[in-house]
Amino acid sequence: MNFELTINAIQDTASDLEVIIVVDGNFEHRFVQDKELLEKAKFKATQDETCLLLEKDRLYVGSEDLASNNIRTAVAAAIRVAQSKAYKSLKIASYAGEVNRTENLQAMVEGLVLGSYSFERYKNTKSETTLEDITISMEDYSGWTQDIQKCAEALNVAQIIAEATNFTRDIVNTTPDDCYPEIMADIAKKMAKKNNLVCKILKPKELREQKMETLLAVGRASRHKPRVIHLIHKPENPQCVVTLVGKGLTYDSGGLSLKPSEFMATMKSDKSGGSAVIGIMKAVSELNLPIEVHGFIGAVENMIGGDAYKPDDVLYAKNGKTIEIRNTDAEGRLVLADTLCYAQQEVKSDYIFDFATLTGASVVGVGHYTSSVMGNSDAVKDLIIRSAKEAGEFATKLDFNRYLKKSLKSEIADICNISNTRYGGAITAGLFLEEFIDEDHKAKWAHIDIAGPAFVEHSWGENPHGASGAGVRLMTKLISSLVKN
Ligand code: BES
Ligand code: ZN
Ligand code: ZN
Hints:
Layout: E1 2-6, E2 17-23, H1 35-40, E3 50-53, E4 58-63, H2 68-83, E5 89-94, H3 103-115, E6 133-140, H4 148-173, H5 181-194, E7 198-202, H6 204-209, H7 213-219, E8 227-233, E9 241-252, H8 261-264, H9 272-286, E10 292-302, E11 314-316, E12 322-324, H10 332-346, E13 351-356, H11 360-366, E14 370-375, H12 378-391, E15 394-397, H13 402-406, E16 415-416, H14 425-434, E17 445-449, E18 455-456, E19 466-467, H15 472-481
Parallel strand pairs: 1-6, 2-4, 2-5, 5-6, 9-10, 9-13, 12-16, 13-17, 14-15
Antiparallel strand pairs: 3-4, 7-8, 8-10, 11-12, 14-17, 18-19
Helix pairs in contact: 2-3, 3-4, 4-9, 7-10, 9-15, 10-14, 12-15
The structure holds ligand BES and zinc ion (2 copies).
The site of ligand BES has 16 residues, from helix 11.
């Protein structure tokens, strides 16, 4: 998809199709030239509602207001309609918002790139989309005059972030037979080479040397052996250091605590946290952010077999703690425990964030659209929630408490891998992870459970069916916000 910015008025811009956003049901605005036709079509201009006037080559879409998050989903809806027709090019004016900022331009470009995504690797008949060129006119809905240089920068940033999100979506959508730990490591390596990142891969031999026995146990019954991937973005004179850790379960069958079939399907998406980390590393390197960023991914497949780890096993984590296994389907926290320990051994950072499709309980608690944020520092959790909001993702806090912590007690080991209560499962999983955070990282760490939004079964907002790339926009926004000018 090619983007162009023009200072020409929208009417003087050549294109096959014009997209017009009807804001807050205002059909009197000068951009809305087809009021009567739209009324005839019973177009109400509700959020994301579209109306294509084929004879006019004009596509209308509704948005409640000029908030960036609404503009993003409106244009995503519009581009899907445009792609279903034979248009080659599209033009749209600017909708900079109540305040003249580049935020809405960024949201618009993201909406167009994210909304037009489709995953067709396994389809013999691919959809024949012809739409390639998008021209954005600087003529603004509210009459703002905009700085073209700033707009061009915003466009570039938006394209990098949205394409990194689509890159993450591609990894997650790939089937477990085509994307197992070794392949995930290859994908990371290839991206690292292209983007000048350092990439280190730990294979079973190195994982054993590093005493990551818990991670190895989870992967033991699989014919695809685990990998730990370490990606490094190291600019000169970095302003601070951020560590990212991702759960990369290329498949989660549940292991011997086997999942019922209806819960097993879609578990290719259990690598969403790790895939998000790869996407974030791609974005931060392309944005040239003056922040040192380390991405660690625990890539493992959780399977059954004669060699499988078992409920009743006691495993030794990298930090020496013993873990009583009572459910092999609570495997993500085991993989993360060792990966978090390794990450902290390798890097002393100012922030450490982990991303994981960790619990069904998070989905039950906060729904399919929202990530759960846990940790010990309100400031860090608030930073994440603020960044999510600005990036157009949903995230909310789940607070720890000492009573739930006790539910992880084991009679025979230091800790149990599941809690003894049915309730608060997202929090108890977060509390389990906390056991593997060093004292000096305790207040710098947050855990982000993306089990809800990572995989979309019914398209919403800018997300088509399949992987959403949850976490990529949120974290790229957060890391960008750490940059001091
Ligand atoms: N990968 C799952 C969590 C999950 C569930 C992600 C649904 C996305 C959608 C995780 O490994 C798991 O199975 N967790 C168990 C934990 C339980 C055994 C304590 C769960 O949530 O049921
Ligand atoms: Zn599981
Ligand atoms: Zn899992």
